[in-house]
Amino acid sequence: MNFAVEIAARGIDFPSFRRVYYSEEFNQEVAEAVKLKERSQKEFVTQPDGKERRRVHVVPRVNLPAAVQKLLNGQSISYDEITVFDPATRSATFAVESMATDTIQVTGLVRFLEDAGNVKVMFDGEAKVKVFGLGGFIERYIVGEVKSRYDHVQRLLQEFIDQGRMHKTTPLSQRPAV
Q: pTM for this one?
């Protein structure tokens, strides 16, 4: 199932946006707002071509539908978000890796567009679930969760900007991976 999410931030240029979006402080506020048990950067590498690869471990608090809980056999859900940001094109690829990567795949492209003191982030993704009889249902659930979370991200991002906190952030790239 394909999905698209767009968020916008007013009153910020791209370098400042990037500093906030990839900061420890913003990362933790997002985790709290969307009720994650954990959201921690496990890896940050600048590749020889200048691209930045991040691995962020996520443990969500979710109320899964009974059919999905049954498939998990009591296991908790966790996954890693892998993004590769290309500063030259202001875009990033993303993929979700988990124990169910053979069954559940979430991938896509993020584009960052700057226009007259505003930044727009456009996600184009795909959720594929290979579970007979439940694949479409689980795909819709995943896409709904993604869209809901980015509603929170947009609100928090604008609060950071409006409150002038963008200058008081610690880039995740400067924080050691845990």
A: 0.84
